[in-house]
UniProtKB/TrEMBL annotation:
Protein name: Nitrilase/cyanide hydratase and apolipoprotein N-acyltransferase
Domain CN hydrolase per the UniProt entry, residue ranges: 1-239
Source species taxonomy: Bacteria, Pseudomonadati, Pseudomonadota, Alphaproteobacteria, Sphingomonadales
PANTHER family: DEAMINATED GLUTATHIONE AMIDASE, NITRILASE-RELATED
SUPFAM superfamilies listed in its UniProt record: Carbon-nitrogen hydrolase (SSF56317)
Length: 263
């Protein structure tokens, strides 16, 4: 499977972000990608306006998602994934990861773990999801869905891999701070290595967030990586690499604990 990671700095105006997404879709399709992963919060971001989410959030049939989905009809072999706030019907919002192909939303996941840490409080406007993310079949790979802060909870990644995930995708807006770049690097690699699966982690860049999108293989090797600037990077995933990793490092077979029960 060929994957493209579209790293960019999300703007306050959703029209600008839609144009950026269109460009990344076109470029990823031109490189024959099967999957394009976009960052977290692709609708709108503004460091100076903490209330931007309630001002800009759109429903699934809103203009942003409708036009984004329509754009995928031009590139029938490409699947795209990115997340944005969706109204929950109670004056709050779900941080929702959407997977879109051929003009249709084929999967969605509402973020389970809200970023109430490091002086941030995502729960101020976001409602936590209450369902485990699905697996999505893309180009012969089973892909599990995660969002940003989920990365710090290894039981979610392990659960998805035990259900059959070959790769995990993680759109993120990883906030800059003391040691935060190291946290990102360690955790993305750890989730891949401890589960002998691929990690496809895409971060927003810009003033607030670190970027540093990367693809890590099942033995913890970063096979593609971006810096702090906007970028489109590519990587190719192989079933034989997963099989090799699980043959020489059979941690999934050797484990002694059952997966935790989801409450």
């Amino acid at each position: 499977m060929k994957v493209a990671l579209g790293q960019f700095a999300v703007q306050p105006d959703w029209h600008e972000n839609l144009d950026i997404c269109f460009d990344l879709i076109k470029r990823a399709a031109g490189k024959e990608a099967d999957l394009l992963v976009l960052p977290e919060g692709i609708l709108a971001q503004d460091m100076a306006d903490p209330d931007l989410i309630p001002k800009t959030a759109q429903p699934l049939d809103g203009a942003f998602i409708t036009r984004l989905a329509a754009e995928t009809l031009k590139y029938p072999t490409l699947t795209i994934a990115g997340c944005l706030p969706i109204p929950d019907g109670k004056d709050r919002f779900y941080n929702t990861l959407l997977v879109i192909k051929n003009g249709q939303i084929i999967a969605q996941y509402r973020k389970l773990h809200l970023y109430d840490a490091f002086s941030h409080q995502e729960s101020r406007s976001i409602t936590a999801g209450d369902s485990l993310p699905p697996l999505v079949e893309i180009a012969g790979f089973k892909v599990g869905l995660m969002i940003c802060y989920d990365l710090r909870f290894p039981e979610l990644a392990r659960r998805l891999v035990l259900e059959g995930a070959d790769a995990l995708i993680l759109p993120a807006a990883w906030v800059k701070g003391s040691g935060k770049e190291a946290h990102w690097d360690i955790l993305v690699k750890a989730r891949a290595l401890e589960n002998t699966c691929y990690m496809i982690a895409v971060g927003e860049c810009g003033q607030r967030n670190i970027g540093n999108s990367m693809v890590v293989d099942p033995l913890g090797v970063a096979i593609a990586r971006a810096g702090e600037e906007p970028a489109l990077i590519m990587a190719e995933l192989f079933h034989k690499r997963i099989a090799h990793a699980r043959d020489i490092l059979p941690v999934l077979h050797n484990r002694r604990f059952l997966p935790p029960k989801f409450i």
